[in-house]
Design a protein that fits this description.
Blueprint (H helix, E strand, L loop, with lengths): L5 H5 L4 E2 L4 E2 L18 H15 L2 H6 L6 E13 L2 E12 L14
Antiparallel strand pairs: 1-2, 3-4
Amino acid sequence: MAEPTLQEIFGTGATQDANTLTIQKSALAAKGLNSSANNTAESLLTAIMLQAAENLTENARSSDTLNRSMTITYSGQDLLDSGGVTFRRDTFITTLYKQTQLASINPNDY
């Protein structure tokens, strides 16, 4: 296998150059995002997480530990009472893997 592609993580049409990462909102529609000029940062990140979680699985990593250094796992939902208001809480676990000794996180390693 190879490194996950931009399209696998960010959706069809994702591109990058030395200065920008471009993600097509339309590619995230399958994850429930309704594209608009004013999507919230949280809605965009949620759609990206759902897209990425589809390909950054433990199974994908265990079959290619050299090229897969991250997993995103949806671990479920529960209800949370906060100040008398009930919220649904959905939890994702992001795990980063690096062959090394313990060290600080460097985004360039992944």
